From TrEMBL:
Pfam families: SpoU_methylase
Keyword Oxidoreductase appears in the UniProt entry: no
Molecular function terms from GO: RNA binding; RNA methyltransferase activity
GO biological process: methylation; RNA processing
Keywords, alphabetical: Methyltransferase, Transferase
Record domain tRNA/rRNA methyltransferase SpoU type: where: 130-270
Residues in coiled coil: none
UniProt organism field: Blastococcus aggregatus
Record protein name field: tRNA G18 (Ribose-2'-O)-methylase SpoU
Length: 274
């Protein structure tokens, strides 16, 4: 993993108000420390499996905080600050009962450069992207990121209204995979989709509309660069986004079922367009 399997000497926390664990305070209030502005708070990662993925990601680890006996399971470098406390102190700091043993805080990094994300490491290689419009549910976003990693999607593009993919709930539901998935914001929406078209992507807007083509009619072998557009749970993609896409596609379903949840629909589409 690139990290020595040594455990830094932990700092024992006995006072829930200790300023050294301020990154973790009152997380139930909104996935970021109370009073921290949106988008500048640290990345909070919950659970040892997700922290292991954090260690493989580009995000610099600030500290780890957890119950004594659990942080020893992590492959932490000697320069990582480790705080331990009993479960009651941990719960009082974070504002809920921690069931996954440990949390970590990491520095944020800016979103990926849009041009570099579209090109990819090899401009001639097949590429799959997910493009999200108005997706304001952190758990759906995390679930989509997890499916993206599992099913060969190499990046996320977000419209300006999307939720923060680095909020704690997004990271938790993704099992930390969102930390290894590059993302960028497409500020000019939906006109900015032309950036994808110029880079050779077929944009496929997912919709349950009856006049859309069946998803299985979109041949991924004929389109080595494909971007799947997904809208928020409930309203789905706006008419403007659908019009800006090259193809409108629907997932064939049994009669009487009009749609899937957005996270499930994303997984189906990612698998179909591999």
């Amino acid at each position: 993993m690139g990290h020595d399997r040594t455990v830094p000497e932990p700092v024992v926390i006995t006072d829930p108000d200790d300023p050294r664990v301020a990154d973790y305070r009152d997380l139930k209030a909104g996935d970021r420390p109370a009073g921290a502005p949106r988008g500048v708070s640290p990345v909070i990662v919950e659970g040892t499996a997700a922290i292991e993925r954090l260690l493989l990601s580009p995000y610099p680890v600030r500290s780890v905080f957890g119950v004594a006996g659990r942080v020893e399971d992590l492959g932490l470098a000697d320069d990582v600050t480790v705080y331990v406390a009993d479960k009651w102190v941990v719960s009082e700091v974070i504002g809920f009962r921690l069931t996954r043993g440990a949390l970590a805080a990491a520095d944020r990094l800016p979103p990926a450069d849009l041009g570099q994300l579209l090109a990819g490491p090899d401009p001639s290689a097949p590429r799959r992207l997910a493009v999200l419009e108005g997706l304001n549910d952190h758990e759906n976003l995390g679930s989509i990121a997890r499916s993206a990693i599992a099913l060969g999607v190499e990046g996320l593009l977000l419209d300006p209204r999307c939720a923060d993919p680095l909020y704690r709930r997004s990271v938790r539901v993704s099992m930390g995979h969102v930390l290894t998935l590059p993302f960028a914001v497409l500020p000019d929406w939906p006109a900015g989709l032309d950036r994808l078209h110029d880079a050779g992507y077929l944009t496929v807007a997912l919709t349950p509309a009856a006049d859309a083509v069946d998803l299985d009619e979109v041949d991924p072998r004929a389109h080595p660069r494909t971007a799947v557009l997904l809208g928020a749970e409930g309203p789905g993609l706006t008419a403007e986004a659908q019009q800006a896409a090259r193809v409108r596609a629907r997932i064939p379903m049994r009669s009487g079922v009009d749609s899937l949840g957005v996270a499930a629909a994303a997984a189906v589409a990612f698998a179909a367009l591999r």
